[in-house]
Amino acid sequence: MVVVLLLQHVKHIALLAQWLNQPTPGKVPRGSGLWDQLFALLYRYERVKTREHQQLAKTLVRFRQAGRAHPDGVVILDAENRIDWCNDTAEHHFDLSLDSDGGQPIANLLRQPEFISYIEGADFSSPLELRAARTSAIILSVQIIPYGDSQKLLLSRDVTRLEKLESMRRDFVANVSHELRTPLTVLSGFLETIRELELDPQRSRDYINLMAEQSKRMQRIVDDLLTLSTLESAPSPSLDERIRMAPLLARLRADAAALSGGKHRIVFDAAGDFDLLGSENEIVSALGNLVSNAIRYTPDGGEVRINWRASAAEAEFAVEDSGIGFAPEHIPRLTERFYRVDRGRSRATGGTGLGLAIVKHVLNRHQAALEIQSEPGKGSRFAVCFPARRLVAAAATETAAQDKS
Ligand code: ADP
């Protein structure tokens, strides 16, 4: 009897040892007598633990999903700065792969000296700006956040666009200061001369005229800057306002003649009885800028052609001149603020270097496109293409007026 009992205990102990060796959930051995109660307790304990384990695994999955969805790069580093986990954005930013680089020290993969001294230092209070490792076109802002037991969170954000905007802002401020400083220097020079020297009335008048010219130049720059800033902040012009093209074209033609003062042959041609929808002031200023450029950059005796072609599908306003022209490589930069091909000529004719920037803004706001062609010494063609949604058939009375002009 004792032997049987002993054998039974040995059998149950063997079963228990076998399960403990490989504790498969739901496979707790069954027994009899006292052992059955013991196994039942073990079974219950194992089930609670399994449920807790599943819950934990689910929570972990949810956290990883949240980390993955985060728009910034997230890398979890252990106490030795080895990669524990990272999201897809971090893989892209640092050109790494969790599968092959997981467990590697981050300093082996991100070797920039400034990053190494950042991660090895103790001050993580501000982020570090960094060019992404192998894709140097991306500028990253990285920050380390220590947490838990010597672990670290490495966050990375793509700040390329912000950086570009910031450098554009810096250039713009430098350009404006430079553009205003030149006439200001001339102005204060003349003022000084008038104050210090005994000048005859004629010379004084000449100086005052030159000063007036410089102050007008400053005025034009400030006016154009204000126009640009209004264009940038105002909402796009609505489709409610009709711009009567017949009188507008007649006005542009008259302005061209006045600007030229009879020194150019001006050819005008309009076809298609369609009006534009948008802001009249803006369109007058944009098209007027193109006409005035054509006159200003065409030597006396040259030709300027103003063309308007409109149909229900699209309309084109083009200004063609036989002027000084420019090499095609300037075309992409021509609408940048203060960009000039011929600085001397621009100044001499009262240019601010902001005209085409205003044109570009106005056209963007009317969903219109600007097409530029030019050849040095031969002339240029600036064409504006308006889409169908900005066009409306002209009323009969205006059509008649256009025919007469
Ligand atoms: P600006 O006030 O200097 O004329 P714009 O922004 O109107 O400034 O034009 C930018 C530059 O583009 C000019 O400085 C000039 O070099 C060039 N440009 C514009 N229109 C013409 C043209 N019709 N012919 C030759 N060059 C032109």
* Helix content, binned percent: 40-55%
Number of domains: 4
Query: What is the structural class?
Result: alpha+beta
Oligomeric state = single chain
The CATH architecture assignment of the largest domain turns out to be 2-Layer Sandwich
Total helical elements: 13
Bound heterogens, unique: adenosine-5'-diphosphate
SSE arrangement, N to C: HHEEHHHHEEEHHEHEEHEEHHEEEH
What is the overall shape?
elongated
Q: Compute the number of strand runs.
A: 13
| Proportion in β-strands | 15-25%
Radius of gyration computed on alpha carbons: 38 Å
Classified in CATH, the superfamily of the largest domain is Histidine kinase-like ATPase, C-terminal domain
Q: Note poorly predicted spans.
A: none
- The CATH class of the largest domain is identified as Alpha Beta
Give structural notes.
By secondary structure, the chain is of the alpha+beta class. It folds into 4 domains: 2-66, no CATH class; 71-158, PAS domain (Beta-Lactamase, 2-Layer Sandwich), CATH 3.30.450; 162-233, Helix Hairpins (Orthogonal Bundle), CATH 1.10.287; 242-404, Heat Shock Protein 90 (2-Layer Sandwich). The chain has 13 helices and 13 strands. It has a 5-stranded antiparallel sheet with strand order 2-1-5-4-3, with helices on both faces. A hairpin with a 3-residue loop joins β4 and β5. α9 runs parallel beside α10 (280-296), α9 packs parallel to α13 (396-404) and α10 (280-296) runs antiparallel to α12. The longest helix has 37 residues, at 160-196. It starts with a helix and ends with a helix. The relative contact order is 0.07. The mean pLDDT is 90. Residues 289, 293-294, 297, 321, 323-326, 334, 339-342, 346, 351-357, 380 line the site of adenosine-5'-diphosphate (ADP). Adenosine-5'-diphosphate is lined by residues 289, 293-294, 297, 321, 323-326, 334, 339-342, 346, 351-357, 380.
